[in-house]
Input
Amino acid sequence: MGRLGAGGGRVGARAATWLGVLLLPALALAGNRGDYARQWPIVQGQEQSGAYRVELNADVYRTAVHPALADVEVFSAEGQPQPAAILSPAQPLAQPPRTLELPWFPLPTLDPAAGGSDLRLVAERDDEGGIVRIEAATTAPGAARLVEGQWLVDASRLREPVRALLLDWERPRQSLQLRYRVEGSNDLRQWRTLNEGTTLLDLERGGERLRQGRIELDGQARYLRLLPLQPGQVPALTSVTAELSPPPAEARWEWVEIEGQRRGDHFEFVLPGRFPVERADVRLPGNNAVQWTLYSRERNDAAWRWRAGPWMAFQVGGADGANQSDPRPLPSTVRDRQWRLSPASAVGEAMPVLRLGYRPEVAVFLAQAAPPFALAAGSANAQRDEAPIPALLEALRKQRGPGWQPAPAYLAETAEELAGASALQPHRTIDWKSLLLWGLLVGGAVLVAALGLSLLRKPSAQD
Output
């Protein structure tokens, strides 16, 4: 788990200062803690960390009323809003990449300064395409000599994309700084460039060592060739490791089960919160197999929108237990309140149970003020100002490595009441400008009417 304190304090301070300056105008317009229904104290997994990640629980979803969770905000001990964003569960969970050591072979190269002709390479490969042995042959005169510094890397056995190569070498006697180009081939005959040039570094001064041996790849190939771009000291290579993409984050699904009401040939349900629904399932008692179509909408006056189906949901019992159909994925995340199931055939008097699956989202916030912090939710009058948290996370991972992630934090099990149910009622605001305008219009109309009456009552000069 990475952190922004201790050794990374300077990075965290710079990030906090940079983001704080950008957010000063936004935070001036952010909501007050008293505008929210309730709050959950946040327990920090580690102290003195600049950024935290806290997972939302079911109570937060049941309290929030805004369709995009804009009424979920993080406050400091003094009630100051903190820069925060609601992200998908996989977004802030950066995981360290996987690595796998690859076979490599030195490529002998003729020194052009000594003269000579072409160098011919013969590679012996096994049935799977892996290189077993390389031989070099040349018709160069005796004055020609071979130089080191080129390598051939065998990535033919990999079935996953390689993001980068990690090179390791013996500690050099003097400083090392040399640029390398990477070329790729699938047949050892035709080559294309996968990296125009990356500088390999191994510097030492005052007992401190700076080393850079990572080369990113722009494309994939079964075989990789590393070529120096200029003459100079070359590293004594000891290993080549492939950096693979990290494994996908494990999805932890939560389910909300809703009992509905029959509306003619349909069944309607009310989702008790702003859950980010991504899957749907239907349960009926006993053995059954029914084809369903799922719809949803936000309000009573809105049209029903298709969400999934038709698909068959079934349950068949047996001696070793019941077999059930898999949940149905939705094309996109939906937070609508009202849902409808339409069966393709009659289901009798049985009442289906709608199961809606979601993955808990996370609130990532930047700690700008003093703890303890709290997460507030539920307001019809206050909204969180979006902060550029994803951009901040990406910048920090570039500085601290792809495996860095915000420090963990946790919501307390018991919520604290703030404004309660009154926060869910919109405030009635008086539009003084409109009232003044209408007053002027009405007053002007009355004045015109009075003048007209006075003219009608005044005797004419002829009379």
About this structure: The helical segments are 9-28, 58-63, 389-400, 432-457. The longest strand covers residues 192-205. The domain at 98-244 is CATH 2.60.120 (Jelly Rolls). The chain has four helices and 30 strands.
